[in-house]
Specification:
The protein is of the alpha+beta class. The chain has three helices and 13 strands. The chain has two domains: 51 residues, no CATH class; 169 residues, Sandwich (Immunoglobulin-like). Strands 1, 2, 3, 7, 8, 10 and 13 form a seven-stranded mixed β-sheet that branches. It has a four-stranded antiparallel β-sheet with strand order 6-5-11-12, covered by helices on one side.
Length: 227
């Protein structure tokens, strides 16, 4: 498990470093008027474009838990668009991959769990959004109130701040990536989970966490505040 996390960490450090260097080079070339080959220009333009169309985690990742059984029921990750960007997160465009490494090193992997989004309006709580997600057929069970267990692990997106109801996360908007876990996929204390968001051009979101001790119904999975 340790080596897997290390690979993910250094992989993302490399991506961020490359993006920063590419953006800096592009800005320098454009500011100084230096010429470059068409190939170099293409690489720099793509780097600039990707830097404008990524997603950023902008706060604490939280979870609802079943303390008695040491299980995470649903997680919520707060997201916004990178500076100057706008990201289409509709189901047919935005893919969400999920991986869970269990304590016994057994790995659970799903290539795409995006069930859709609640584009209309905004929500002030994850519990309300989860209820609407079930009403709209995005999930099969509401883990807050239903006795039965979900048959599939599903992700959906809803907005806390929503300017135009267009299914995109724009600068200044705040959305939540919610994941409701099937019984066999629920993370437990000490297990490692990874979530990646992809569009046709490539990866625009990467989140990995080791589940802390589950001692309360609300679990803080950490996060970061956008500078």
């Amino acid at each position: 498990m340790t080596s897997h996390r290390a690979v993910g960490f250094w992989y993302n450090i490399a991506l961020v470093s490359f993006m920063a260097i590419a953006v800096t080079l592009a800005a320098t070339i454009m500011a100084s008027g230096f010429s470059s080959s068409d190939a170099t220009k293409e690489v720099l333009e793509e780097a600039l474009d990707e830097s404008r169309h990524g997603l950023q985690i902008v706060g604490k990742i939280s979870a609802r838990a079943d303390v008695t059984n040491d299980k995470i029921l649903v997680t919520g990750t707060p997201l916004t668009a990178a500076s100057g960007g706008s990201v289409d997160v509709k189901q047919d465009y935005f893919k969400i991959n999920y991986k869970l490494i269990k304590i016994d090193s057994h790995t659970i992997t799903y290539d795409d769990i995006n069930a859709g989004s609640l584009n209309e309006g905004s929500y002030n709580s994850m519990q309300t959004a989860v209820a609407d997600a079930k009403a709209n057929g995005l999930i099969d069970v509401n883990p807050y109130v239903d006795a039965e267990k979900p048959e599939r692990t599903s992700a959906f997106i809803y907005w806390l701040v929503n300017f135009d109801n267009d299914g995109r996360i724009d600068v200044g908007e705040l959305a939540i990536l919610a994941i409701v876990y099937a019984e066999q996929d629920k993370p437990s204390t000490g297990e490692y989970l990874l979530v990646e968001g992809l569009v046709p051009e490539g990866s625009i979101l990467f989140m990995e966490r080791t589940v802390p001790n589950i001692s309360d119904v609300v679990v803080d999975l950490g996060g970061k505040i956008k500078e």
